[in-house]
Amino acid sequence: MDMQLKDKVAVITGGSVGIGLAVAQALAREGVHLVLVARQEERLAEQGSKIAADYGVKTLAVAADVSKAGDIEKVVAETTRAFGGCDLLINNAGTGSNETFMNAPDEKWQYYWELHVMAAVRLARGLVPGMRQRGGGSIINNASICAKQPLSYEPIYNTTKAALVMMSKCLANELIKDNIRVNVINPGLILTPDWKKTAAQLTAGTDHTADQYLDQLAKDLTPIGRFATPEELADFFVFLCSPHASYCVGSAYYVDGGWLNVVA
Ligand code: NDP
Fold first, then answer.
1. Ligand 1 pocket test: which of 13, 92, 198, 232 has the largest number of ligand atoms within 8 Å of its C-beta?
2. Which of 49, 116, 123, 250 could form a disulfide linkage to 160, CB 3.0–4.6 angstroms apart?
3. What is the pTM of this model?
4. Confidence at residue 155, expressed as pLDDT on a 0 to 100 scale
């Protein structure tokens, strides 16, 4: 299927590894030029160059911490300078947390609010004027199944991801008149290098391997009984970005192997 995305420009936060990198590769395969954003400059630049070489698209690596308003301004300025704006915005940068209400200070709540919610607000404010000039576009916010079905150890993550889902709905209502479609994806278990690292730490010195731990976790939690690969998830991002998803507006889509335990 022709996804009709050739020569579009996408800004992808957290595009240097895991889900963001897989989305970057999948969009590049469709001929989309990329602005990749993350904090660690070296890894980001390396992946940007590799994607440019592998897929023949233009890539720009912008080292930025999207939890900081000043860095968001840099992302917007660099995108405008290099490409005159963008057609697609993927707000993917994010990370899990680990706390209780009783031990987490205000500063931790504030950081995750900036990272998961304000980054998407500020990038929309900065990039939407250019998207309007280009005739429209698509914004996808990567939240989590935890926005609906919380994990006990990370209330800050659950709460800020839930806020991102509502923010997406409100933004979708405001921007559809400009032919900009906003949607949110709620992934379940996606096997990224970070999961592998965590599993290795948790199983160090035990009788189980990291792979056994992950396999059992997926069997315990999901009807499908396995993790998804980042590539499986990335295909759904591409579809949702594309004109084939033209009637998809303001929705939250679960890609979770059946893990969500209610009808959403
Ligand atoms: P990874 O930890 O593998 O990658 C995170 C990416 O975000 C990296 O590129 C990282 O680069 C970047 N990043 C993190 N913090 C910042 C920041 N402050 N500013 C700019 N970039 C940042 O994560 P995943 O691929 O696993 O997850 C991606 C998204 O998907 C997250 O929002 C996560 O919550 C969500 N998700 C993941 C699931 C999973 O099972 N993997 C399930 C559900 C949701 P750098 O460190 O260089 O900044």
1. 92
2. 116
3. 0.98
4. 98
Q: Indicate which residue's Cα is closest to atom 41 of ligand 1.
A: 190
Q: Report domain extents, the chain.
A: 9-188+230-254, 191-227
Whole-number pLDDT of residue 264:
81
DSSP 8-state secondary structure symbol assigned to residue 227: P
- 62 touches 74 (CB < 8 A): yes
Question: What are the backbone dihedrals phi and psi of residue 44, each rounded to the nearest 5 degrees, phi first?
Answer: -65, -50
Tokens linked to 86: 């963008």
Residue found by looking up tokens 């390396």 in the block: 46
Half-sphere exposure of 129 (CA within 13 A, CB side): 8
Question: Which residues in the chain show pLDDT less than 70?
Answer: none
CATH topology of domain 9-188+230-254: Rossmann fold (3.40.50)
DSSP three-state, residue 211: helix
Pocket probe mutation, ligand 1, options 113, 190, 236, 260, max atoms within 8 Å of Cβ: 190
Distance from the alpha carbon of residue 233 to the mean position of ligand 1, in angstroms:
14
How many whole angstroms from 192 Cα to the centroid of ligand 1?
Answer: 9
Determine the 3-state secondary structure of 230 from DSSP. helix
Length of the chain: 264
Supply the pLDDT for residue 121.
Answer: 99
| Cross-strand pairs, 88 | 10, 138
Contact 256, 169 (CB under 8 A): no
Cβ(237)–Cβ(29) below 8 Å: no
Q: Is the CB of 67 under 6 A from ligand 1?
A: yes
Distance of CA 20 from the midpoint of ligand 1 (Å)? 7
